[in-house]
Amino acid sequence: MQSTATTVEQYLQELPEERKEVVEKLRKVILKNLPKGFEECINYGMLGYVVPHSLYPEGYHCDPKLPLPFMNLASQKNFVAVYHMGIYSDPSVMDWFLAEYPKHCKNKLDMGKSCIRFKNLSKVPYELIGQLASKISVADWISTYETVVKTKRKR
User: Fold this and answer.
1) Total count of domains within the chain
2) Looking at the domain assignment, is residue 2 inside a domain?
3) Over the stretch 84-119, which tens digit does the pLDDT of each residue have?
4) Which residue intervals define the domain YdhG-like in the entry (predicted)?
5) Is residue 75 a part of any domain in this protein?
6) Fewer Cβ within 10 Å of end Cβ, the chain: N or C?
C-alpha cells in the first residue's frame, strides 16, 4: 500500500488511526538510534532513512537521482513493515537480529529478505528495532553497498 504523501508529516497524517501510534513510535525509536548522517524523507511511498546525495553523490544505482536507501518504515495493507537493507546485505547483522529477536518478542518472526512484518501491533519489539537502526554507520553502509553492487555487477 504505497502512499502518495510527499512529506513525512503528510504520511503520518494519512495513517489509519489504528496504525498511527505504532508507526509514530517506530519512527521515534529509529530516529533516536539512527547514526549521524542518515536523513529521513519520503522514499518509495514510505518513510525512508537514506544516505543523502551530499554524503553519497552517486545516489542509488537503480536511479541515481534518488539518495542511497538504508531503511524504510511503512503501513502496508495487512501489517506494519520495517525494511532494513543491512539485514539483507550484511550476514553479521542478519545473524545478530535472528539471535536477538526471540529475546524481545515471543511472536514468530515474519520476515522476508529485508522486510520485517508486524501483524500483531501490540507485539512490536521497539527496543530491538532501535538497536537494529544503530547497527550500521553511514560510512559502513556505503562500503557494504558498494561491495555488494560491485560483486553483483561482475556476475
Assistant:
1) 1
2) no
3) 999 988 999 999 999 999 999 988 999 988 899 999
4) 19-133
5) yes
6) C
Integer Cα distance of 144 and 29 in angstroms: 24
- Give all strands (DSSP E) within 27-152, no chain letters: 39-43, 46-51, 68-75, 80-84, 115-118
Q: Which residues lie below 8 Å from residue 40, measured CB to CB, with a gap of 6+? A: 8, 27, 31, 47, 48, 49
> Which domain covers residue 16, as residue numbers?
8-154
Looking up residue 51, the CATH number of its domain turns out to be 3.90.1150.200
For 6, which DSSP code?
S
Q: Which residue has the cell 498511527?
A: 20
**Edge-to-edge strand ranges of the sheet holding 46-51:** 39-43, 46-51, 68-75, 80-84, 115-118
Containing H/E element for 12? helix 8-14
